[in-house]
Automatic annotation (TrEMBL), chain B:
It comes from Rothia santali. Belongs to the acyl carrier protein (ACP) family. 4'-phosphopantetheine is transferred from CoA to a specific serine of apo-ACP by AcpS. This modification is essential for activity because fatty acids are bound in thioester linkage to the sulfhydryl of the prosthetic group. The gene is acpP. This is Acyl carrier protein. The modification O-(pantetheine 4'-phosphoryl)serine is found at residue 40.
Amino acid sequence: MSRTVVVTGLGAISPIGSSADQMWQNALQGVSGVKALTDEWVAEYDLPVYIAGRISHPVSESEFITRVEAKRLDPSGQYAVHSARQAWKDAGFSGEDAEDSEELDPERVGVSYATGIGGVWTLLDSWDTLRERGPRRVMPMTVPMLMPNGSAAAIALNHKARAAAQTVVSACASGTESIHIGLELIRSGKADVVITGGTEASIHPLPLAAFARMQALSTRNDEPERASRPYDLDRDGFVMGEGAAALVLESEEHAKARGARIYAELAGTGVSSDAFHITAPDNEGEGAARSLREAMESGDFAARDVVHVNAHATSTPVGDIPEATALRRAFGDATDDIAVSATKSMTGHLLGAAGAIESVMTVLAVHDHKAPATINLENKDPKIDLDVVTEARDLPSGQIVAVSNSFGFGGHNAVAAFRSVS
Amino acid sequence: MADQNEILAGLAEIVNEETGVETADVQLEKSFTEDLDIDSISMMTIVVNAEEKFGVTIPDEEVKNLKTVGDAVSFIENAS
């Protein structure tokens, strides 16, 4: 018997708000979080791209993380811990951690928290320190700060989560795949509660230069807010974003026993691998379609039940079309009735955090029965045969299903499907 | 040359910056690990910051002998 899994807590720190609710309100209103970068390294390295979606509120001004904690965490870890503490608080557990919450057994509380790149700031800063000041000045915390599992471990330590602390690394699919693993941990009976999500803090000159060399980034530097334009004919690449999001997953039985507020059911998930090309998606979208079909089977829903998709849609010329093809392959004619939103138009692309950020939005979409905006869609690419939501709109009443897609470099496909609860 | 009180005050600032322990709690008889709950990783950072601040060298093999704040203050006083 598969155990029903629900979402009971949300947290987010993003380019369009430093809480799940603030981010969601801005996503409904079509607010852009993309700005020109003013760091001195932009001029120093003469970077070809100097726009990005920075977090809207610095963590140094946050109640969720202390100065001393911040010293021992990479920015990606700071965002991760921040988002998890928000989600924990939002879930309404009685204590600060699983040990001092009488309704929780620490050995049945897990963490599945992802990143795309990990502690890249720490790695590169430490390399500079080594070269300029020698090995004794390299921070003793360098390794735990740069390791990709550092965020999952920090969250587990914070909340005394002892069932498991896992990190999936699958580029831009990471955040969604972490939710998939969280679902499995609960369905298998190993955990009652899992903190899932993803983080990314890689707005650093090296990743910017590297993505730019791949021709993956928009160079619309003079119009930052208009640069991320999924599905538009004039899209010219994605815009890097940073931030983190967390979702507390819980078995329905456990959530109901403690009287928790339930946002939505995590109906099902699907994952697959293209094995087609190291960076390009399969043109036919078959890998992505398989992950969508698997999510339908996992979640026991039909194409006709799906009313909304938060698309991966990064705004690259080559990436947006195969996803549209995949949706049609998986959902057939029912695709015509699906309201598709591309929220990266507002947040930029948060890489390993993208799936977590977008899953938070998809949970709130089924909870509030609203689809968020897609901004900058002025001339829709005729190859995109989808009903794209340009201004936030109401979704049908009654029980609905919405899907969040994430696809990563390496051919990783991950889908999370959420169902409304009455 | 710094006297004992100046070294203690400077060390307390370094400890506070790294660990958040109040400067007033950094007293000569306090043990770094037992009383101030400072782990070996933080201790390594405190040591290099103290070297820089006081212009001394504290060899890595010496760090394990610096059990109390007083041990560290004496070492720095004698080395400077």
